[in-house]
Amino acid sequence: MSEILLKPKTLPAKIRSQITHAQRQGSLHSLPTEFEIVQQDGIAFILRMVINLDRKEQAQKKQADFNPFLPYEEDLYVTDISDTHVCLLNKYNVVEEHLLIVTRTFVEQQDLLNYADFLAVWAILSEIDGLVFYNSGPIAGASVRHKHLQLVPRDLAPHQGIPIESVLKHAEFEETIGIVRAFPFSHGYIKLTPSDSLTGATERSVDSYQQLLTALVPRSPYNLLMTREWMLIVPRSQASYQDIAVNSLGFAGAMLVRNQQQLELVKADQPLNILKEVGIKDVRF
């Protein structure tokens, strides 16, 4: 059983302090972007175009076995979460206060999430009301083999919130698992009932996660998105649409492109159609 080491009500100050330190040391690289909103089927998709991806791409060209988390950069260290996980800053961030929830020892990113993972998630979520996501391997958008979840603020762009929440409220449920008819790809959605304790929240999340995986495509790569209120899992069939990479945030309603040509392609082909291509077609509709 994991032990929580993070002291309550200390995380926000630690994040701010470490961001300031990492910026001064030149260890934190915020990628400048421009964004626009594209409406489709009730979702206000955020399309971000990165101004300069050179540094991130150069870092990703390092040898295939390079592990940025073992050891991690001290300048990016925020805090110990538990005896199994630490919290780091995302070195190449598009949104501010982008956090990584990383296992202390090497675990494959494609391994199933477990109680210790969700306990670490809830230790962070109890302090920061954000969006947690998990890319379960390369096909789901993971670029690092070492197991890690991520958390970003709920505003994926200024004053925009999480775009898909506008349609999640229309989910149709069969027992506990819901489907959203606006989504043309296989998915499962569960509302998380409130809990007064970290252990209670963790247990309900593990149960919801297992329910969703069982109901969807077993052993398929997938994206997981989660807030304090809900959990969504989307099975994946491919990592990108043409040359546009898609990870969990794409299914939250925020897509990242590298240039004007890619931006125009997303607008022409439309975000939901792109997500359908990289997901798995939902045979229920």
Q: Which features does this protein show?
A:
HIT family, subunit A; 26% strand; alpha+beta; 27% helix
Globally, the shape reads globular
Please report the distance between the alpha carbons of the first and last residues: 42 Å
Please write the string of helix (H) and strand (E) elements. HEEEHEEEEHEEHEEEHEEEEHEHH
CATH architecture: 2-Layer Sandwich
Please name the fourth-level CATH homologous superfamily: ATP adenylyltransferase
Write the CATH fold name: HIT family, subunit A
Q: Into which percentage range does the β-strand content fall?
A: 25-35%
List the helices and strands and how they pair.
Blueprint: H1 11-25, E1 29-30, E2 33-40, E3 43-50, H2 54-60, E4 77-80, E5 85-89, E6 92-93, E7 99-103, H3 115-125, E8 130-135, E9 148-153, H4 165-168, E10 172-174, E11 177-179, E12 188-191, H5 198-215, E13 222-226, E14 230-235, E15 240-241, E16 244-245, H6 248-252, E17 254-257, H7 260-269, H8 271-278
Parallel strand pairs: 1-6, 3-17
Antiparallel strand pairs: 2-3, 4-5, 5-7, 7-9, 8-9, 8-13, 10-11, 12-14, 13-14, 15-16
Structure, explained:
The protein has a single domain, classed as HIT family, subunit A (2-Layer Sandwich). Helix content is 27%, strand content 26%. The chain has eight helices and 17 strands. The protein has an eight-stranded antiparallel β-sheet with strand order 4-5-7-9-8-13-14-12. Strands 2-3-17 form a three-stranded mixed β-sheet. α3 packs across α5. The longest helix has 18 residues. It is globular, with a radius of gyration of 18 Å. The N and C termini lie far apart (42 Å). The mean pLDDT is 94.
